[in-house]
Write a structure and sequence with these properties.
Layout (H helix, E strand, L loop, with lengths): L6 E4 L12 H4 L6 E8 L5 E9 L7 H54 L4 H26 L5 E3 H15 L4 E7 L3 E3 H21 L7 E10 L2 E8 L14 H13 L5 E5 L2 E7 L1
Protein name: histidine kinase
Catalytic activity: ATP + protein L-histidine = ADP + protein N-phospho-L-histidine
Organism: marine sediment metagenome
Length: 280
């Protein structure tokens, strides 16, 4: 039937020379009725048929024939849609791969230039850029592993952000985290990652002078539909504010990120160390 008309109907297969000797029709309770609508690709190539079979002779009405033809067109639309989605997946995978490589290259270049400079202020700026690039790369990786969903697992995402921060932290500073089981939208995760990165960087830079042992804690909880972020360190805090001047650029970035969450950062220095909290 695939080489014949767009629609083929055989009311009784045993009375049709094309099917009369077919074992599927002659053996036992074989096929006695066949109707098939041709499935044709956009380039005109026949792909197969949408078939209706029965073990009793019958004849379709005009409405039934029209219905089969409509169903055949729907099958082709579904096949075309699957092909388009597969092609889109390939393009997205390629784009994700390029973005990932670009972010990794940018981070490596920033790190390389920072190592070659002696000016401390410039090095600090480059370190900040690298942290932000790494946070973006982490978010992108989580979104990619999530199958294209616009949300990430809060615990896994925070774990990777903290892991990156720990890699760049001096050996005398340890960073830990905890997070309730929850998901974050990508825009929320991006802002959260930036706030955590800036808090940790400020603590590492100012909170533990003379290589004193330090601990930074990050906690994300979900209560009554709202997230609460609490960050703290056990550094010098307000004990010696002359030695601890918060990074004004970092403070500005944290405030901007918090505004994206419709929240305000509460950041203070206490005798026990630095404290940051916000609810969104």
């Amino acid at each position: 039937a695939i080489l014949e008309a767009p629609f083929v109907e055989i009311p009784d297969t045993l009375q049709d020379p094309r099917m009369a000797d077919n074992p599927l029709c002659t053996e036992g309770d074989g096929l006695r009725f066949y109707a098939g609508a041709l499935l044709v690709a956009p380039d005109g190539l026949p792909l197969g048929t949408l078939c209706i079979l029965d073990n009793k002779p019958r004849q379709l009405t005009a409405l039934q024939r029209k219905t089969v033809a409509v169903l055949a067109r729907q099958v082709m639309k579904q096949l075309d849609l699957r092909l388009a989605l597969r092609q889109q997946d390939v393009l997205m995978s390629e784009a994700d791969h390029r973005i990932k490589n670009s972010l990794q290259t940018l981070s490596a270049m920033v790190r390389l230039h920072a190592r070659q400079l002696d000016d401390k202020a410039t090095v600090n700026v480059l370190d900040g850029i690298q942290r932000r690039v790494n946070a973006m790369a982490t978010l992108h990786g989580e979104l990619q592993s999530g199958g294209g969903r616009d949300e990430v697992d809060a615990g896994k995402y925070l774990g990777k952000v903290v892991s990156l921060l720990q890699e760049t932290a001096p050996g005398h500073v340890q960073i830990s985290y905890s997070a309730d089981q929850a998901t974050l939208r990508s825009n929320m995760a991006s802002s959260l990652g930036l706030i955590i990165s800036e808090f940790a960087a400020n603590s590492i830079k100012h909170g533990f002078p003379d290589a004193s042992p330090g601990h930074i804690e990050i906690e994300l909880t979900l209560r009554d539909g709202h997230f609460h972020l609490a960050c703290k360190d056990n550094g010098i805090g307000s004990k010696n504010e002359g030695k601890r001047r918060p990074d004004s650029i970092g403070q500005t970035l944290m405030a901007a990120a918090a505004s994206q969450l419709d929240a305000q950062v509460d950041h203070s220095l206490t005798p026990e160390g630095s404290r940051l909290s916000l609810t969104f």
